[in-house]
């Protein structure tokens, strides 16, 4: 049995799979266009790059996808350049905006003015209902299994049914989704589709350094750490996570004031950038809880084909 159809505003991809928007520099034009070309929905992360760089990434993604498929941009509300990032993406005519780490009434109004759907990342039925009321075209329900910043300590499997019952817009499940079997389970719990980040890091087309991707193949588990934005985060254990454990500080050489709120315990921008460039000792390696299931680096098209096969097999076995 084929996967169900996902429809969000004008978007109706071949597969109900959205690639997670991962900053700093993990999901740029190369990964987003590859996912789009393979039948999913690609996302460029606007976090950690300038509005001018974002414009160029969008144009490159459009060129690589030859105008087919769907490309969106992730704008992190916690960033000081949130408004400029979102407006740059809207000016470039992206298919949609997705935002996390906070909700802004303005972002829905900006999207409406450009006739561009806006999606919200939420962690509760209450936030999902608020997002729908403000104008969200869909919500991404992210549980504690997700990589990066987390807004809850609950599993997506527990939150998802509550959200699906609370809203009438499409509900996308995120956090620990690694296989076609996982997709089938999320659909059975009320999801219209899924968002996957970690699985797409370990692909040839991912924009990160090879050393970063290899960490996902080698990793056996993840651990929780505290982000400078005041939220817990999930990452692969390494010397950096050990250094910041229990409030340990890392010297900040230069602060670029990238966050609206920051504890200044360490520079998260610098740590994420180091990891993206291949420094596995001093970098912060955000990752979802299911990373141990990744055994090899594949092409995006191969990942998508496997997801379909696994989904069909899981359906037959049910």
UniProtKB/TrEMBL annotation:
Matches recorded under InterPro entries: Aldolase_TIM, NMO
Keywords carried by this UniProt record: Dioxygenase, Flavoprotein, FMN, Oxidoreductase
Keyword Signal: no
GO function term, MF aspect, one: dioxygenase activity
Known function: Nitronate monooxygenase that uses molecular oxygen to catalyze the oxidative denitrification of alkyl nitronates. Acts on propionate 3-nitronate (P3N), the presumed physiological substrate. Probably functions in the detoxification of P3N, a metabolic poison produced by plants and fungi as a defense mechanism.
Protein's recorded name: Probable nitronate monooxygenase
Species assigned in the record: Bacillus selenitireducens (strain ATCC 700615 / DSM 15326 / MLS10)
